[in-house]
């Protein structure tokens, strides 16, 4: 393999990884498929490209293509790569769990909104002042300071004195 192909393979991998990070899985698949054609399955970079390719296929919902890529990787000469492929294939072949409807958040489609409505939504949030909600609790002032429980305060005072004495003993003890 020439240096030109090696560089373009690495560039294809980098482009594919960046596209996956952005969520642009179709572009990632295009870049990774091109890179996968140039890299041998048995090479380290070829395996990495194919793992990313399987991830991109899974992200767009093409589970069968992701499984096919994992099955190719299951024949890799390195045991570690075969184990990773088997683990990924195990995940891909796992049954889908049903999700309750109340566990999901439905994001509305904003493409059908008119320009006036969108302009109102884009306005700065500082346009109208919100009323501040009154807190549910009230602090009551203490009229007689003798009614304050100081017993806990004495305990803290004794604790601080003990810590200071202990620290002084540790620092200034004769050795």
UniProtKB/TrEMBL annotation:
<dbReference type="InterPro" id="IPR011990">
    <property type="entry name" value="TPR-like_helical_dom_sf"/>
</dbReference>
<dbReference type="Pfam" id="PF13181">
    <property type="entry name" value="TPR_8"/>
</dbReference>
<keyword id="KW-0472">Membrane</keyword>
<protein>
    <recommendedName>
        <fullName>TPR repeat</fullName>
    </recommendedName>
</protein>
<keyword id="KW-0812">Transmembrane</keyword>
<dbReference type="InterPro" id="IPR019734">
    <property type="entry name" value="TPR_rpt"/>
</dbReference>
<keyword id="KW-1133">Transmembrane helix</keyword>
<feature type="transmembrane region" description="Helical">
    <location>
        <begin position="155"/>
        <end position="172"/>
    </location>
</feature>
């Amino acid at each position: 393999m020439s240096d030109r192909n090696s560089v373009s393979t690495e560039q294809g991998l980098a482009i594919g990884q960046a596209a996956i990070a952005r969520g642009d899985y179709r572009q990632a698949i295009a870049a990774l498929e091109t890179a996968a054609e140039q890299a041998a399955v048995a090479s380290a970079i070829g395996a990495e490209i194919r793992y990313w390719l399987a991830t991109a296929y899974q992200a767009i919902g093409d589970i069968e293509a992701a499984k096919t890529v994992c099955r190719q990787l299951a024949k890799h000469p390195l045991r570690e790569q075969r184990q990773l492929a088997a683990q990924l294939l195990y995940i891909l072949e796992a049954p889908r769990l049903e999700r309750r409807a109340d566990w999901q958040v439905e994001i509305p489609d904003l493409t059908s909104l008119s320009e006036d409505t969108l302009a109102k939504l884009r306005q700065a949030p500082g346009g109208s002042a919100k009323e501040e909600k009154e807190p549910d609790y009230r602090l009551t002032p203490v009229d007689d300071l003798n009614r304050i429980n100081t017993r806990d305060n004495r305990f803290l005072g004794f604790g601080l004195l003990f810590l200071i004495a202990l620290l002084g003993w540790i620092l200034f003890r004769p050795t």
